[in-house]
Amino acid sequence: MANPLDQDFTLFSLLKFAFPTIAMMLFMGCYTIIDTIFISRFVNTNALSAVNIVCPVINLIVGLGTMLATGGSALVARKMGEGKRDRAKQDFTLIVLFGFVLGLLITVLGVCFLDEIIWRLGASEILFPYCRDYLLIIFLFTPASMLQVLFQNLIVTAGKPGFGLVLSVGAGIVNILLDYLFMVPFGLGVKGAALGTGIGYLIPAVAGLLFFIGRKSILSFKRPVLDFSVLRKSCGNGASEMVSQISTAVTTFFFNRTMLQLMGEKGVAAITILIYSQFLLTTLYIGFSMGIAPVISFHYGANHTIRLKRIFKNALGFVVVSSILVFLISTIGNEQLVMLFTGSNTDVYEITTQGFRIFAFSFLCSGINIFSSAAFTALSNGKVSAVISFLRTFAFIMLGLIVLPCMMGVNGVWLAVPAAELLTLGVVLFLIERNKDHYKYVRENK
């Protein structure tokens, strides 16, 4: 059977190859933004602000699960490749058990220290009740959340990526339906949103358990060996995912704190709308970059220099053009996008649309930065990829949040992300130029 990676890719064939990943990311973006729209529209913008206040805790939970899942998947897959199938099953079972126990521990600690956690996250007295209602339920479903993340990765390792995709999409659709049901007909408010999300975690968790209990899969549960080196290596392999989520948690916390000081609860609602809109609008770059990463890896490993150059040229061309289109869409259509969350006659609408006019400039640079980080990972240069990711998601944003609001007030908050993306782009162009002779992705061999 011919390897689908072993071809001379055109722009069209690159897009065709990456389309499933792009579609998956777009669905995740739509599902996430619909979730927040329901909260804003069917409860109020204070509830939306509260969800963003507790978002750092959710980032940490997702980070721990993703760290264990990605690192553990690599370890289990390697054992399978070495022909150690029984040991792979034992390690797989140990990783799943550890994830579940870790989830239970987070639940117990979270419930015991719930109020203190919320106050330390910077909630105001107005937002505190919403934060408490939402976060309590999220903590109760944390074990299911951990299993969901683990199974989504390990099902792929078991050779069933289609089943994993169906589970993800199914869980997202059920979450949206339950959010509406609990918030509107049942009138549970923000509790209903959290309950819908929690049940959404349960679906892939239970389905994954049933899948791996069966003996037909190449991976299944087997009495584990308590080998702490397996857990240490799994966490070490997936540490970059945890760092990324910690960065998001910290920057979200400082965004919330800064806006709460400058504009109160309405300002937090506005920055929440921008953050979730940013995720939706960048899913095109993220999906494309993830989708073509195996293509770059294959041709780099095969030393297909001319093909690699063509792939990079087509990919960069697509990213540049799509970046301009996304910028135009976000500039022209920002009012319509904001109106999905709040009415046009509200203060939150005025604050958000004014901020969007500045924030939109970030889309001109973010596409190249996201693609470049993914490309260097595909080229097995994790250090350069990590530098790009760290600068754009943490270092430059934190620098902007410390300096710009002191100089420009609330406009400095809106400018923090565009400034971070622009500074990162400068570093990216330098790194691309510096590594061109080694990877030969911008010129043909002579």
TrEMBL record:
Listed transmembrane segments: 12-34, 46-71, 92-114, 134-151, 163-182, 194-214, 275-302, 314-333, 358-379, 386-407, 413-432
Name of one Pfam family that matches: MatE
Keyword tags: Antibiotic resistance, Cell membrane, Membrane, Transmembrane, Transmembrane helix, Transport
Main localisation: membrane
Subcellular location, record wording: Cell membrane
Domain of life, source organism: Bacteria
InterPro entries: MATE_fam, MATE_MepA-like, MATE_MepA_subfamily, MdtK-like
Membrane topology per record: Multi-pass membrane protein
Family matches, as NCBIfam families: matE
Family recorded in the similarity comment: Belongs to the multi antimicrobial extrusion (MATE) (TC 2.A.66.1) family. MepA subfamily.
Protein name: Multidrug export protein MepA
Organism: Faecalicatena faecalis
Organism lineage: Bacteria, Bacillati, Bacillota, Clostridia, Lachnospirales
